[in-house]
Sequence to fold (1280 residues):
Amino acid sequence: MMQLPCPWCGPRNVSEFHYSGEVIARPDVGSVAPDQWRTYLYTRANTAGWTKEKWYHSAGCRRFFQVQRNTLTNENHLVEEAR
Amino acid sequence: MTQQTSTTRTASAAAMRLEPQPGEVINRSRTVHFTWNGSRRTGFEGDTIVSTLAADGERVFSRSFKYHRPRGLLTAGFHDPGCIVQVDDEPNVRGAHRPVRDGMQVVSQNVWPSLKYDAKSANQLIGRFLPPGFYYKTFMRPARLWPAYQQVLKRFANGGVVAAEATGEYYDKRYAHPDVLVAGGGPAGMSAALAAAAAGARVMLVEEEFELGGHLRWGDDTDRAVMTDLRSRVTAAEGIEVLTNSVVLARYDENWMAVVQRGLPGVPERLIKARARVLVPAAGLIERPYVFDGNDKPGVMLSTAVRRLINLYGVKPGERAVVFTANGAGDAALADLRRAGVEIAHVADARRGGNIARALGRGAVQSVELPGKRRIDADLLVTATGWTAPTSLLNMAGDRPVYSERAARFLPGGQAGDSVLPVGGLAGDGTVEEYLAHADAVGARAAHRALAERNRHAAATPTSVRRREGASDTEPPADEDSDRLDTPGLSVDPHPALFRASTHGMVDYSEDVTSEDLFTAVQEGYDSAELAKRYTTATMGPLQGKLETINAIAVVAEATGKTIAQTGTTTWRPVYAPVTLGALAGRTFEPVRHSPMQRWHEGRGAKPLIAGQWIRPEHYGDPQAEVHAVRGGVGIIDVTPIGKLDLKGKDVPQLLNLLYVNKWSKLAVGRVRYGVMCAEDGVVFDDGVTGRLGEDHYLMSTTSSGAGAVWEWLELWLQTERPHWDVHVTPVTTAYASINVAGPRSRELVSRLTEGVDLSPEAFGYMHVRTGRVAGVDDCVLWRIGFTGELSYELHVPSSYGLHVWEALMKHGADLGVAPFGIEAQRVLRLEKGHLIVGQDTDGLTKAYSAGLDWAIKLDKDDFIGKPELQWQAQSEGGPRLVGVQPVDGSVVPPEASQIISRTGAILGRITSSRMSPTLGRSIGLAQVDSSVAASGSLLTVRLPDGSDCQVRVTEQLAHVDPEGKRQEIGVAPSSTSGAASVDFADFTDPVARPPVETTGSTSRRGHWLVTDRASSADLTLTDLSPLAKVGVRAADDGALASSLGVQVGRASRREGALVAGAGPGEWLIIDAVDGQADLAARWRNRVDETGESAAVVDQTHGRALLRLTGARAVDVLAKICAIDLADDLVPDGSALRSSVARLVTDIIRDDVSDEPGQRSYLLHCERSSGQYLFDSVVDAGAEFGIETKGGALDIG
Fold:
């Protein structure tokens, strides 16, 4: 089981976290076209390699934070500005 | 036949037992009696089942899996394929590993009718007709016969008998955090462990056998002297935890290790989940069998088996032996055999061109044929033809071991990374001294890396001493020089490449796969190791390749004309050794939640309903009567599981506007509104009411099942999308016991108990909220809302008083006919009123317009979650619609999920809710139907499960009863005299607060609280401290309030007699004296006002359970239910952290109560509804350490 570097609690087992998905920007609701919105809803890069992800420490500090994770090796580190 | 030496020998008691041997592990002064297939046997303490039987001269212990060939002893260790037996009701016991125990009944497996006369061995006569893939090829068609095939095949391929009545054994789990985990307790493993411990690492040393020592155990005097020295140094060393009769099963990401510990008292197996900073695989080498005709006959043994039998158990392996040796182990076995008085008939030395061709004999070896057809009589054939490196753990770490032609075995490929460092035979060859020197250097290096890693971990952990001392997590680790540590290399010694003789023989003993089968597979086109393995099932039996993989690859290589290196190895996957399902399932942690009134419900015979983690009353016997009670008078229902979130801050209205589809800007103080939340795809996600309690203070309710998800949803939007908004969210679901009082007489009943709130319809209208005192309990929240359509009040009472208020309602409503009602009556009442249930009348595709919520959706808001999709749905007017339906025949209740079909049979929708309405005396329902047939009055066809159809008519409204909503206002006005006559508010001057953990034995009052008196002087105790005042504060983590609180995340300290814990970023928990919460909260609210900061101060006294676990072994108790490393340097006194305990989110505060070294005390803090569960889980985990529960000591100062 991999560990994630919670910026508040320190390294913890991934079972303490909820995966919240790739970091993607929410389009402007006032002007968005259906295609663009559905890309936001459903399309993910699903990269084999380094990705930027959002995780929620549900069994700990209850904070969302961002990590860079290599989906091939599970190697990961904190995105510093997320804190 | 020249001599009839031992080939006709018969078994007799201890006939083969030798004189005492210097290294034997048996205690000849202690005999052990058991039975083998019904016959009485006597062994010694320390004997295994098979060593005892071998001492009696037994040679056959099982029949093989497919051909039912007789099988004997091959390796004399755990992984002996022929020694799998049944012990009492336990199947598949490794008989060459399991010690004998008085009274055990051992029987052979996979035999019928008996071991000696096995009818199924006829299979071997027709072996020519059981080629590889036979089962696939033969039992394919016709498919209707599969069940019959299965019956036949099961008889032929059974593996022991599982008792029909499960005994419910107690399995166990725990977590561990070794710096260095050494997998294997031979000389290299011990040496590495010693070096790592000497360098300051915490070491876990895991050994499969019952004793440390590895191959030195059956070695000569010099070997044993080295072993004794190593063992005594391991015993004396600080920081080495030795686990024997234990195996490392698997290695996962970041050295997350599964270790199974066997044979503990009262616990068959314990699974240890270990997070090792560095793993040192030291599994040694496994001796490889040689492939030749008859190589599976009883009497063919590996050299290590012979050495174990003679040296460990004092058992003579045979009378007359042929020895085929290619290495020193074979030579040593030869010497042992001579010493044991075994006649050596012939030695074939592979290094000088010697070989063997086949073993002959009926049932067991009687003679051995050499190349050139020469036959030699012998009852024992010993082979020493090389080794398999059990590289499993390396493979699991990503290594791809490479085949060495020179060593004729696989060696590590060097890709396992810095945190996996093999030693011993896995890593190379050497003398014992060379192995020790290598392992010593690797152990030191492992410790170095592990400690650097540990420092890095500590620097990133807010509770740690290191962090407090100011170490930063970017500080360079202290392992700079570890690469310069000198590691003497191991050599790779030449070894003859011996895999198969001139004849064909068994490759996989467990699965009965021969080298001939592998040749056939290759001919049929399965010409890679992976394909041939799957086709023939070689390496897929109980041994999982430990003995047979290399031979299988070698044979495939031979058959394909490739080299072994070109053929490659098959993948070694977890688990390395067999483990019971019980150990994997272990003690299961399934958190359970109870309302404070649960005991009352149980006492009234409520039928329990499991709803998520909650246990709720489904009904109290007659749900129809419960519906009548509500419509005719008054009923009360426990709705505690409804999710509740306390929202504070000036931006709450903006948040509500974003989350809900409807508008919230103008909700006045004292008002309540219903809202629906959608996800970004416009699909209905949750619903509930939110009330405005004060200027910047709101209470949001959610569905019971959605409480957790909605909270996370709020945090997601607040933290990641709108971080500048001023909103503090505090979950208070179980801070309140929630009771809905419903029915025309509800006002009368509530008014009898309520002080300080004017309940008249003019003063307290529909969808209003008030706070006041109910049955003498302050700070109750009263909502005038109702899903039943009747006049109703939802009372949210501080949880500890829930039972008190519930009982007061029952008592003072007796003359009004008050009745408790359960979930089923609630379902009916809701359905009669046409209120949808999210998740029942909607599904994962139901957008808000399809849920009949058109009236609520406000597309003129700038933004709300899901708005674009709803906008487009509104434009297209497509999708299904939620409608009310009534069967034409009112006596038919179509089951929920029945399909609604068109004339041509196309699916137009489905029934989502369906019940018999006691109020209308007819069936009613809700349905999701295509918009084309959703018009009021449409007649629809419903296909029932039995295939028949029924007709239902779409109703004008969703509500079946009182669609105009008039009943909401019909209340029987409380007659000013009746209430006053029956109730004296003085009755309520002393309401009883009950803690979350049930009080047992003698009790007394402490302030408002009922507490247990139980005293205990045990070394390890658990106390329910829930009555202590608990107040939560949420504010900026860097403001004046934060400095006033004095602690940051991860720390706890005393302040003005209270304990203040930094529970999370910008989140504090303050614990103070019993009944002090009102003052405490007021004090901190004043401070908030003084600082002018935005903050939330929420009384959590009733919403949380607080336990204290005290004792030197407290840390060991928590290690069984919590994955956090609680070592003193990482979590010292004064630490605060939150993690999962028994799968429950729990705050852990280290708060030692004694200065005695080693004494520890932890406060555990969780949601009240799970307090009993947490308490029970800790008591269960603490049983082996003698935990006792204790009352009293209700203070924190």
